[in-house]
């Protein structure tokens, strides 16, 4: 397998724990000609804003960018489903030559009249950045005409990485924050940031906090609503999940409204429990909150433990590879997998920063491969070398795992089952178990090779 | 949910029924042996396209990208494309790199042919240089089908030679965007006529292969470069697609003009008549009679059509998707009594209505609605009025199928919500047989489920 060559320019983004001093190069633009698993700025913005279900999401550009993102995510809404439709200005040749502003204006006019959204987001795609449309001006004009916020999202694909897309989305979101009244917002309240309600996860988590006696003002952006975001500045605390996506917003809210924030993760039992305890600890004057939290954690863990223990018996000693978008998620996954008795042999992320990689390296055993912005060649090389039984990643990694006869768990925004929260942990364990223990692997030639070794 | 209808000067496309050009081009390049597709533009396009195709084919889908950054967008993509080619060569050692542009590189006016020329000139190890084939695919000019046919043509134009032929006569086959199973079927048919098929593209193995023993940088299979070169010496070309046949210049016509390889242009061989046509042409070109095997298949198909006719005659269906596929399905539907009450496509070649009408008997025309360059919202609105028994098209019609409570039979691309997109057969008598069985069974199932009694005899 060592015949798979690694590009020289990529070597600083791949490390084996225990070898050489650790210094990960990251945050780089992907190398030209590599098959990166990353997407573009637009993709980052779309991921963050997509779950806002009562807003219009109009993609300004040629058709592809919209067609490929039509209803691809499992972010659920309890009410309006506007986010699941795909709207595009579908720029054609003449628009590219003469500019797309007129078309954009007409599109917004027509769509807002018909769908009556609470706000509209206008995503700029690559060529909009080139043909020089004044998207902001069109947005201002329509905003004045229709009386709803019409927000440009500066997400031209080539102007950075997915992370810049998160930032562009946060900039747009921030313009909604503070638009509403904070009447009825309790002093014991939080916003949940960076939870997108994939498969209903945000509902699970919101319920935990509410049972603790903490009001959840707004979830950003899972099952999101424009009005709730508008009054989110009234919350006492921002609880931010995931390292990248919503931290920008938390920073801005801290600066502008003095809202403090903490970082949490809802993946795995330990991190989930910690997310609740950390919030409870922020309200020391109300000790009953902490008491309730303990009770909730106890009850929830007791409810899932028997089945988890059963599952663990089958998974003990199996090996896992993780390749996900944000490094923060990887931390939790390592812990969750360890909980199931599994060993992590490879871990990587699309957008981790230096600190993240340091943490990863501290968490892993010697010999674990650590990667930044990996490509399919590298991923396949190492999963075989390390004889992994399970690969955790997104849709793009799935066929690599399958071709090599390795189980797979989709841990991306496109999955349809909840993997966060206590019940999510159980769902995760079941998902892993279903794949890893399937009898089909016994027939897979690549795995047979590894057995004979 | 209610949708905003397109007004006269409608502006927004809602739930598009087509995809963008580089996707089609990338698919073609995936069907060439030892080839890596390279999209010249920023990263999102290639990542999205890969993701979209993976969900259909369920196979690894390496498509490289020249990864535009802000700098590139201002100063042009020349440096990036060269670096990309270098990096692809050192990682994959391909024999061919298929370069398709995206909206971005087209808009900034990158001169890709010039970049390629200068790369070749500057290149130090010229003998190891892979073939570099370029196709221009701005999505604001066309759909994935333009990208597909454009790439097929670019391959032929760049590589074809007036080659010597071997023992068997060569047959160039330009099948259009069909499933891996369809591709296999076409190869088998050509071989049964005693001809050596050169299928462009041929992703039957590269995108529908077995499990691996070790990682394959480039999946095995695909049309070899040698074979593409030999197209200039073929006995004939068979080019499928009625809409495609309206294009003034295609791979087939180009070979005809340049190397006097006669081009036979037919529709996608879906259903009896179009398949008959193909068989007749192959018999003529090869000088061999139609093998018994196919007479048998045809016979059994007709027998099945008679057995099931009562379930189908007068059934109304809506057909949607890629233009040529819809035309083929419309022709087949008319042969089995299914009324293609609505034919819709996101494509916009301008020949859709005429083509559809040419394959459906005139007396049915008044029962039909034909829509070109439309999105799903427009299609759904039309269906709310018309009402049909069955939808036939790709997965993206499912949302509409669910709301309209009308079952969807999945064909074509993409099939994202079933596992057999690659294995669905559309072409030839066997494809017609499969389609027929699926359509009849679906209708029977509906009747059975809705009946109060639930008979097991039909
Ligand atoms: S920019 Fe053009 S090529 Fe890229 S995804 Fe959008 S439509 Fe397709
Ligand atoms: S055109 Fe730009 S914004 Fe659209 S998918 Fe491609 S990289 Fe992303």
Automatic annotation (TrEMBL), chain A:
<dbReference type="Pfam" id="PF00148">
    <property type="entry name" value="Oxidored_nitro"/>
</dbReference>
<protein>
    <recommendedName>
        <fullName>Nitrogenase iron-molybdenum cofactor biosynthesis protein NifE</fullName>
    </recommendedName>
</protein>
<dbReference type="InterPro" id="IPR000318">
    <property type="entry name" value="Nase_comp1_CS"/>
</dbReference>
<dbReference type="GO" id="GO:0065003">
    <property type="term" value="P:protein-containing complex assembly"/>
</dbReference>
<dbReference type="InterPro" id="IPR005973">
    <property type="entry name" value="NifE"/>
</dbReference>
<comment type="similarity">
    <text>Belongs to the NifD/NifK/NifE/NifN family.</text>
</comment>
<dbReference type="InterPro" id="IPR049939">
    <property type="entry name" value="NifE-like"/>
</dbReference>
<keyword id="KW-0535">Nitrogen fixation</keyword>
<comment type="pathway">
    <text>Cofactor biosynthesis; Fe-Mo cofactor biosynthesis.</text>
</comment>
<feature type="domain" description="Nitrogenase/oxidoreductase component 1">
    <location>
        <begin position="40"/>
        <end position="435"/>
    </location>
</feature>
<dbReference type="InterPro" id="IPR000510">
    <property type="entry name" value="Nase/OxRdtase_comp1"/>
</dbReference>
<comment type="function">
    <text>This protein may play a role in the biosynthesis of the prosthetic group of nitrogenase (FeMo cofactor).</text>
</comment>
<dbReference type="GO" id="GO:0016163">
    <property type="term" value="F:nitrogenase activity"/>
</dbReference>
UniProtKB/TrEMBL annotation, chain B:
<comment type="similarity">
    <text>Belongs to the NifD/NifK/NifE/NifN family.</text>
</comment>
<dbReference type="InterPro" id="IPR000318">
    <property type="entry name" value="Nase_comp1_CS"/>
</dbReference>
<dbReference type="InterPro" id="IPR000510">
    <property type="entry name" value="Nase/OxRdtase_comp1"/>
</dbReference>
<dbReference type="Pfam" id="PF00148">
    <property type="entry name" value="Oxidored_nitro"/>
</dbReference>
<keyword id="KW-0535">Nitrogen fixation</keyword>
<dbReference type="GO" id="GO:0016163">
    <property type="term" value="F:nitrogenase activity"/>
</dbReference>
<feature type="domain" description="Nitrogenase/oxidoreductase component 1">
    <location>
        <begin position="20"/>
        <end position="443"/>
    </location>
</feature>
<dbReference type="InterPro" id="IPR050152">
    <property type="entry name" value="ChlB/BchB/BchZ"/>
</dbReference>
<protein>
    <submittedName>
        <fullName>Nitrogenase molybdenum-iron protein NifN</fullName>
    </submittedName>
</protein>
């Amino acid at each position: 397998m060592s015949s798979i060559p690694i590009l020289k320019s990529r070597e600083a983004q791949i490390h084996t724990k225990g070898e050489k001093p650790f210094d990960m190069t990251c945050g780089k633009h992907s190398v030209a000609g590599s098959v990166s698993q990353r997407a573009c700025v637009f993709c980052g913005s779309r991921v963050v804003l997509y779950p806002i279900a009562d807003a219009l999401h109009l993609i300004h550009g040629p058709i592809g960018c919209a067609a490929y993102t039509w209803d691809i995510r499992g972010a659920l809404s309890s009410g309006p489903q506007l986010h699941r439709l795909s709207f595009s200005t579908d720029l054609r040749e003449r628009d590219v030559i003469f500019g797309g502003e007129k078309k954009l204006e007409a599109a917004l006019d027509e769509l807002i009249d018909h769908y009556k959204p609470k706000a509209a987001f206008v995503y700029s795609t690559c060529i909009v950045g080139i043909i020089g449309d004044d998207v902001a001006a069109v947005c201002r004009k329509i905003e004045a005409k229709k009386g709803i916020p019409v927000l440009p999202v500066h997400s031209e694909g080539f102007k950075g990485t997915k992370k810049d897309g998160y930032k562009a989305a946060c900039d747009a979101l921030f313009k909604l924050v503070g638009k509403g009244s904070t009447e009825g917002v309790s002093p014991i309240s939080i916003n949940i940031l960076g939870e997108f309600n994939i498969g209903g996860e945000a509902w699970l988590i919101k319920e935990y906090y509410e049972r603790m006696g903490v009001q959840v003002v707004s979830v950003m952006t899972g099952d999101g609503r424009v009005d709730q975001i508008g009054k989110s500045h009234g919350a006492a605390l921002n609880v931010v999940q995931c390292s990248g996506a919503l931290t920008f917003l938390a920073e801005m809210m801290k600066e502008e409204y003095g809202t403090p924030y903490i970082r949490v993760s809802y993946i795995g039992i330990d991190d989930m429990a910690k997310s609740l305890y950390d919030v409870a600890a922020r309200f020391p004057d109300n000790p009953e909150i902490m008491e309730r939290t303990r009770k909730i954690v106890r009850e929830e863990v007791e409810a899932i433990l028997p089945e988890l223990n059963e599952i663990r018996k089958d998974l003990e000693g199996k090996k896992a590879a993780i390749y996900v978008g944000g490094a923060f998620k990887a931390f939790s996954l390592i812990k969750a997998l360890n909980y199931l008795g599994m060993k992590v042999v490879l871990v990587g992320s699309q957008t981790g920063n230096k600190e993240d990689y340091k943490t990863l390296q501290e968490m892993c055993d010697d010999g674990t491969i650590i990667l930044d912005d990996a490509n399919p060649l590298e991923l396949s090389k190492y999963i075989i070398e390390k004889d992994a039984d399970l690969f955790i990643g997104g849709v793009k990694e799935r066929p690599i795992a399958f071709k090599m006869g390795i189980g797979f768990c989709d841990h991306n925004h496109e999955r349809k089952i909840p993997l966060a929260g206590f019940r999510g942990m159980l769902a995760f364990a079941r998902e892993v178990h279903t794949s890893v223990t399937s009898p089909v692997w016994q027939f897979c030639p690549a795995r047979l090779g590894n057995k004979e070794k | 949910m209610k949708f905003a209808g397109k007004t006269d000067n409608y502006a927004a496309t809602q739930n598009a029924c087509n995809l963008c050009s580089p996707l089609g081009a990338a698919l073609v390049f995936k069907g060439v042996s030892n080839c890596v597709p390279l999209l010249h533009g920023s990263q999102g396009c290639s990542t999205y396209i890969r993701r979209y195709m993976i969900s259909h084919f369920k196979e690894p889908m390496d498509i490289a990208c020249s990864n535009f950054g802000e700098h590139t967008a201002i100063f042009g993509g020349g440096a990036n494309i060269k670096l990309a080619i270098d990096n692809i060569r050192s990682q994959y050692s391909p024999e061919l790199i298929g370069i398709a542009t995206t909206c971005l590189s087209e808009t900034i006016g990158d001169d890709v042919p010039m970049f390629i020329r200068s790369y070749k000139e500057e290149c130090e190890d010229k003998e190891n240089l892979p073939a570099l084939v370029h196709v221009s695919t701005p999505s604001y000019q066309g759909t994935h089908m333009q990208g597909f046919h454009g790439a097929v043509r670019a391959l032929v134009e760049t590589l074809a030679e007036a080659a010597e032929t071997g023992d068997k006569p060569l047959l160039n086959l330009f099948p259009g965007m069909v499933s891996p199973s369809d591709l296999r079927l076409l190869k088998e048919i050509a071989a049964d006529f005693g001809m050596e098929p050169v299928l462009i593209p041929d992703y039957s193995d590269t995108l529908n292969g077995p499990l691996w023993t070790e990682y394959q940088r480039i999946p095995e299979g695909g049309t070899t470069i040698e074979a593409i070169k030999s197209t200039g010496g073929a006995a004939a070309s068979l080019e499928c697609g009625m809409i495609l046949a309206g294009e003034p210049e295609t791979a087939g016509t180009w070979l005809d003009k340049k190397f006097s390889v006669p081009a036979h242009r037919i529709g996608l061989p879906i259903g009896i008549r179009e398949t008959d046509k193909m068989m007749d042409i192959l018999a003529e070109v090869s000088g061999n009679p139609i093998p018994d095997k196919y007479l048998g298949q045809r016979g059994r198909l007709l027998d099945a059509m008679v057995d099931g006719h009562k379930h189908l005659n007068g059934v109304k269906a809506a057909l949607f998707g890629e233009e040529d596929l819809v035309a083929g399905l419309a022709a087949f539907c008319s042969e089995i009594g299914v009324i293609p009450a609505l034919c819709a496509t996101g494509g916009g070649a301008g020949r859709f209505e005429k083509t559809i009408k040419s394959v459906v008997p005139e007396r049915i025309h008044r029962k039909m609605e034909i829509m070109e360059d439309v999105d799903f919202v427009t299609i759904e609105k039309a269906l709310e009025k018309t009402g049909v028994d069955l939808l036939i098209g790709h997965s993206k019609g499912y949302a509409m199928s669910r709301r309209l409570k009308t079952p969807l039979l999945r064909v074509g691309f993409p099939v994202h919500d079933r596992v057999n997109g690659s294995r669905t057969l559309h072409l030839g008598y066997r494809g017609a047989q499969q389609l027929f069985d699926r359509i009849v069974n679906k209708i029977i199932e509906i009747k059975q489920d809705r009946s109060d009694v639930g008979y097991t005899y039909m």
